[in-house]
Amino acid sequence: MADSAAKIQQLKALLQEAADLGSVNSVLGWDQQTYMPVEGNAARSRQSALIGRLQHERNTDPAIGHLLDELTPYAESLPYDHDDASLIRATRRAYEQNIKVPSQFMGGMYEHMGITYDLWTRARPANDFSMVRDALAKTLDLSRQLANYFPGYAHIADPLIDFSDTGMTTEKVRTIFGKLRAQLVPLVAAIAERPAIDDSFLRQHYPQADQMRLGVSIITDYGFDFGRGRQDLTHHPFMTRFSSGDVRITTRFDEYDVRDGLFSTLHETGHALYELGIDPRYDGSPLGGGTSSGVHESQSRMWENIVGRSLPFWTHYYPQIQSTFPKQLGNVPLDAFYRAINKVNPSLIRVDADEVTYNLHVMIRFNLEVELLEGTLSIDDLPEVWRARYTSDLGITPSDDKDGILQDVHWYGGIIGGQFQGYTLGNLISAQIYEAALQAHPEITREVGAGKFSTLLNWLRQNVHQHGSKFLADELIERVTGSPLQVEPLMRYLNGKFGGIYGL
Amino acid sequence: MADSAAKIQQLKALLQEAADLGSVNSVLGWDQQTYMPVEGNAARSRQSALIGRLQHERNTDPAIGHLLDELTPYAESLPYDHDDASLIRATRRAYEQNIKVPSQFMGGMYEHMGITYDLWTRARPANDFSMVRDALAKTLDLSRQLANYFPGYAHIADPLIDFSDTGMTTEKVRTIFGKLRAQLVPLVAAIAERPAIDDSFLRQHYPQADQMRLGVSIITDYGFDFGRGRQDLTHHPFMTRFSSGDVRITTRFDEYDVRDGLFSTLHETGHALYELGIDPRYDGSPLGGGTSSGVHESQSRMWENIVGRSLPFWTHYYPQIQSTFPKQLGNVPLDAFYRAINKVNPSLIRVDADEVTYNLHVMIRFNLEVELLEGTLSIDDLPEVWRARYTSDLGITPSDDKDGILQDVHWYGGIIGGQFQGYTLGNLISAQIYEAALQAHPEITREVGAGKFSTLLNWLRQNVHQHGSKFLADELIERVTGSPLQVEPLMRYLNGKFGGIYGL
After folding, report:
1. Does residue B74 carry a pLDDT above 80?
2. Percent of chain A at pLDDT above 70?
């Protein structure tokens, strides 16, 4: 046992350096996406690639493999959820994954990420897909190479899906998405029959500084601690963690749509609350981060939508937003505002989509990723196929690439594959977990209506956040809700909420 | 020759990685000193220490030593100022210095730097030297250890001075400072006999946003390119370079003294213009940075003072600052403003000091550093001795440590020794170089009076900036001005300018 304790310490020291290099790269990435002047990009991409390669070298240090082998009997002697057993298990999983990919290849991927991101930041305002076409083709090529370091998959997308949603496969995602789609499409159709909601007052001029101040006030109520985090501006909002004491969110504001910045602030705060709630003793190890894209997204979508777009929430905050924007909202009744921020309306931009049609965006993107990786769709056909899918699935056709294929950073962040399933999995998980929270604490609804979130947050910390990556997503969902991932809670939530709003 | 070219490429590749790690650490440091939330510090310090250690490992890679040995005949076959000869020479100098210090020790120093900086940011507002006392004692201990990795010095401060002002020694600095002091003290005394200048209107309320906007406008005229740089807020202003395409300045504003932020902006811009002017082909090598503290400071002090506090400059910019602050300055004549920003008045804070007494601050600090390293002064006696020296040399006694020993970051950035001589050397060099610039282009004065700086900037780029660290400070000064470092140009400048202002 004393011997095992010493080996655990050795393992943690090795992991700490690798994790620190990861955090360093997160700082470089955060700066690149917030403050870096345009001409800094070439050197920054090279520097990120170097750190990425060094991190990968650390993560594949054979000393980690030896320690894991030596620690296996110790791990097997412990309960499954013991910290050390979980550390050894999570490290084994990450190590086996890491050693399959050469460090040099990872360095090249990191370098390509920086270059592609830079191209995207210029291609989107220029509405010019051709500026990123070659880089995206290379991204696809690299993504396929990456997948092929994991032979034996049933589908080429599987290894990439497994990176972010461990345990998920193309087949499983397709099954879940099929079930969900079968219930979503009739709901969208029923809503389309009803009179359209007026949301024009949300598209007046809302000065950015006021929007930001309001958001800060709300997320402070949520429990976001500015002594352990920040909020900055960016092109495509994200959350990033440098340590348990430094977790940051980024936001993009639209001065002519008050929804954009506000709900994106609540969304990224959901991610941040998860990271801030992880047991700080897991810092610097594979346990010290959210357990999957899906579970992460469940937290962001819960605070953005289930909480942040609910009637009780706005019953409390409506006077505050009205007094922040008296000219814009002074004469708008609460109910009209609540209906407007929940208006269901097939649109072009995923991150701005309503809760009902959002998942249709994700399904389009997921299918496109899968087809690109399979080779059944080419990069050159992508803009055209994109437009066709939006036309058939959402009933609207993007008039340009800016709001089509260039709309978000994902494929321009260096990888195609495994980038999208987590968003809809997250919606499903958020509804299922929130039902469990309400069952344990029915008073949560009333507290939300009073601008109090501590019961919900503490329950999430206790049941979800603190564990970091100790449990895989499916283990966690089962532990927290008593059943595996289901489609029904989300559909119950959507049918209830939007049935009410639209009088279905 | 083909063989040498290949070896130069190998050398550059090795140096590039080391330089990139240095730049990464600069990003971490910039963030730590601008945006990082307080609770991020522990992890950040550890991460910086790791990168510092990795950089030092790269810089001491024996492969560099072998390549340098193999390249020596090639270097000797080239003219002294050939790029390759200069690269080999500068790399040899840095390598010989680096290999004397163990990487583990450097990692420890980096870690201590972060911790001490964090303590200082809290001790200064709290006006509590005891909060940093132990860390500072450790800094002194580490600084002495560092010096002792370079045995054979005449004075223990010499190796530390040599790091930042290569070729300088305690003895040489004392000689120069002695000469300067002999001429400065009578000037200060003569000015003290004259009626005090009224500068009360500079200490009205000047909103920070307006100050910043004005500064941005002026430094844009100077030639600072925001596509290759930024300006952010910090506790203690500094300039930092991440690559030739990303050079940043930081500023601290005082809303109740318009001088602070404005002249600090011009000062850091002077540093930035130097870095931005270095031949980008030197990026990623020991040539790709300013050549010494003194020469660097000559650029910052030139743009801050010789240009930025001159009458022609304000003849052009006074209407602009008046229209920015009409209530504060609308009724103040240009001449009163010019005299006020040049008021000579012994004060407590070095960075806010006038051009005449500034060097007396530096001399106090230099002497304290030397005595601490010698062991003739202890950390515990430091606050008391500080007060005594300010009383004897400047005639004023700090009433607290906030404006005394805690006033600037230097000793709390991880090292004591070699931190201060560069400031006064810089003033000397700036005057000597500016005389040479005026001799070559007498029209510079007129252009400054029209808000045009391109002749001066281009001349500096050509003669100083582009060379990076190709020449040592004394070589550069001799090349640019035709003579070694002298005290006379600065005294001619000070006597002329302040003789005029004070009617001496």
Report:
1. yes
2. 100
Rounded CA-CA distance A129/A116 in Å is 12
Nearest to B402 by CA among B132, B29, B37: B132
Put simply, whether B244 touches A (Cβ < 8 Å) is yes
Would you state the structure tokens that stand for residue B209, as one six-digit string?
């946003």
Task: Enumerate the CATH 1.10.1370.30 domain ranges in chain B, comma separated.
Answer: 170-502
Do the beta carbons of residue B46 and residue A245 sit within 8 Å? no
Contact B159, B153 (CB under 8 A): yes
Nearest-10 Cα torsion for B335, B340, B341, B347: 160
More confident residue, A83 or B41: A83
Read out DSSP for B21-48?
Answer: HHHHHHHHHHHHHHT--GGGHHHHHHHH
3-state SS assignment for residue B315: helix
Pick from A31, A115, A121 the residue to mutate for testing the B interface (most B CBs within 10 Å): A31
Pairing label, strands A239-243, A246-251: antiparallel
Secondary structure of residue B400 in the 3-state scheme: coil
Query: Which one-letter DSSP state was computed for residue A355?
Result: T
Q: What is the CATH number of domain B170-502?
A: 1.10.1370.30
Residue A392 contacts by C-beta under 8 Å, 6 or more apart in sequence? none
Percent of chain B at pLDDT above 70? 100
How high is the mean pLDDT of chain B? Answer: 96
End-to-end CA distance of chain B: 63
- Residue A351 confidence (pLDDT): 87
A28-50 pLDDT, tens digit each? 999 999 999 999 998 999 999 99
A127 in B contact zone (CB under 8 Å): no
Contact (CB<8Å) B31/A31: yes
List, for residues A273-290, the tens digit of each pLDDT value. Answer: 999 999 999 999 999 999
Q: Is A231 helix (H, G, I), strand (E, B) or coil?
A: strand
Core vs surface per residue B370-406: b (16+ CB within 10 A) or e: bbbbeeebebeebbebbbebbeebbeeebeebbbbbb
Encoded tokens for A263: 């709900």
Cβ–Cβ contacts within 10 Å for residue A2, how many?
A: 6
What is the Cα–Cα distance from A20 to A58, expressed in whole angstroms?
10
Smallest CA–CA separation between A202 and chain B, in Å?
A: 29
Residues 6+ apart with CB under 8 A from B243: A40, A42, A43, A44, B23, B283
DSSP A444-504: HHHHHTTT--HHHHHHHHHHTGGGTTSS-HHHHHHHHHSS---SHHHHHHHHHHHHHHHT-
How far apart CA A278 and CA A469 sit, in angstroms, is 9
Contact assessment for residue B169 and residue B418, using Cβ atoms and an 8 Å cutoff = no
Quick check: A224 contacting B, CB < 8 Å? no
Residues A209-236: pLDDT tens digits? 999 999 999 999 999 999 999 999 998 8
**Helix, strand, or coil (residue B405):** coil
Q: How confident is the model at residue A155 (pLDDT cuts 50, 70, 90)?
A: very high
Among A47, A50, A115, the residue to mutate for chain B (most B Cβ within 10 A): A47
Please say whether the dihedral angle defined by the alpha carbons of residues B114, B120, B121 and B122, taken in this order, is positive or negative.
positive
Contacts of B228 in chain A (CB under 8 A): 37, 39-40
Beta bridge partners of B247: B229, B241
Residue A476 CA to residue B501 CA, distance in Å, equals 76
Q: Is A41 on the interface with B (CB under 8 A)?
A: yes
Q: Contact B228/A40, CB-based, under 8 Å? A: yes
Alpha-carbon span A267 to A82, nearest angstrom? 31
B40 has a chain A CB within 8 A of its CB: yes
